[in-house]
Amino acid sequence: MAQTSPHHLLNTSWTSHRLSPLHHGNEFETLLDNPTALDTYATRLRDHLTNSLANVQGWQAEEDAPTLSTIGALKSCTWATLSPLSDLGGQTHQTQREDHQAGILVTLEYENITYKAALLAAPTTSASEPKTKKNKKSNQKKKVESNSTYLPVLLTRLPRSLRESFTGFLSATFDTYCSLLRLPSKFMCAALETYVGGLSSRAEGNPSSSSALIEDVIKEMHLTLSFSPPISPALKSLNLSIPQASLTAFVRAAPSPSTIGSASGSGSVDDQGSSSVLSGLSAYLEKHLALDSGMRMGMGSAGELFWGGEYVRLTRIACAGFVITGEGRVKLVAQARDGEGEEEEGRSERNRAALRASESLLRALLGRGVAEE
Length: 373
Description:
By secondary structure, the protein is α+β, with helices and mostly antiparallel strands. The chain has 2 domains: 175 residues, no CATH class; 187 residues, no CATH class. Helix content is 38%, strand content 21%. The protein has 11 helices and 17 strands.
């Protein structure tokens, strides 16, 4: 069955949601590998959106609700299976065999604009998990996999009225529950380290090359810190900007290479190396502004890395490579394909590094969605 590339997830501002399992056993045993099921639900969604949008505009449309004169008529609605996320970062074929379909891409093509939504599948079970735990999960999965599909994270690029119609369709059709996937400060800190670690791994053993790559991909970085009312009643947030020339000055070595604690708070993600932007930034703020942000890394009792900070929260990260906010807004920036020719070699290396880092960030987001279960 033809699959859609996960590159469609790039260069788009998404809103993240969490989904409970989609139940479809009364009609189809499977969903991801069933073109007939995908076509059937695409047709039903088209009918649902056509009717619901007309009803909304018939009596009371919200301020951001699209009008027919603005977006035009709905020309097509397609559901397509996304190929494995490993295709995004160009991993080896061995890794790809262990991976699985990344989920479903829903495309709504109107006359004047195209909207998208992506239902992402849960990551595969880690090879480091005990066999008993794997067997338990496998048995549980077998009980429900013939009747439901677990796609824990929903990404939407839709106006509010259309998003509500879409999630309403999912709830009515699959008996699923949809809620906003908020990203806590701990996840935000881990997301930044995950992304920087993904870039650093492309130039392992060459610090100068690693620094140049980080500066080239991330460029200027903007962070937003939020404060709890008891600590700072008058100051709600503080915006910090790190220029490109100063970025690598905040990337300093941690005591030893370790695996960064999962952004979800349970488990772990890929090895991120020893770089820590937040540790360097936290030390700078404490020295020059006498501000203890608590964003430094420490070692937990189990040897995992953690970030302190009960009253100071990281709520937004924006740079040339990605944007992520505590309200669940996510955007990953990278080119889908490399250029050709020797003169494009440097740009291709930069793009491959950005793709690998974007893949790592997507997997961390999926881990967060699963942990919310």
